[in-house]
Amino acid sequence: MVSMQAPEAHTTWIQARRRAVTAPQGALSLVLTHWEPPGAPAAADAIARAGQPLDATITRLERTDIHSGAHQQGYRVWDPGSPALRAFDEIEYYDFDPAWVIPGRFEWMGDARVVPFEHAKDDGALRSLPASGDLVFTFDGTEYRMSAFDTDNGRVAKLQLVFGDPTNGVETYGAGRFLFLDHPAAASGMTVGDSIPITIDFNRAIVPPCGFSNHMNCPLPPPQNRLPFAVRAGEKIVRFRNGFSL
User: Fold this and answer.
1) Are residues 183 and 235 in the same domain?
2) Does 54 map to a domain?
3) pLDDT for 128-164, tens place per residue?
4) What domain of life does the native source organism fall in (predicted)?
5) Are residues 75 and 101 in the same domain?
6) Fewer beta carbons within 10 angstroms: which end of the chain, N or C?
């Protein structure tokens, strides 16, 4: 049962989303992501800041190169006066609909499990991401099983669902959407095959960061996460003013 306070809570969440994407290090402020050659040292601050506004922020990145497996250093530049932020109008949403608050279960697959995900800027190569469990739910009498990978959001353990549906590219962002769920705390005491109830609220589906900045490299929905029915809930697309586009 959906709480009578759910629509009000949803409005509060929408307001928080706007604050997040327009923050000094929100997705709209990202103007550059740069990676050094695999194995090369990190760029000095003076190099990273060259040509950037004085109030820009530099953050550091690390990853494993997808082709060589070597350690790779990088950085991002966040500009609080970025063109995207100046032109931002709104995120377009579907109206809150309690029918899209769906009961399901989180099925534990083990800490060691990884699932291959393609990313938008990796030319079809796959990155293996930790996915300790599956999200399982029933819609119109059919059971669906989707891979959600383990991540953290604000240092809180989360499940990140990257999913697609027939609204993509028509009503919603073309590359799919994200949904973050609290990671079941009981998972630490579970064995493979155990499950725990979880609520999947598609009203909290969001446009991924690559819908706000071309300098993000977002994961794309794997085949098992491409739903055959239209999910008309959550965020649709990002609107900009004055003809601006990414």
Assistant:
1) yes
2) yes
3) 999 999 999 999 999 999 999 999 876 788 999 999 9
4) Bacteria
5) no
6) N
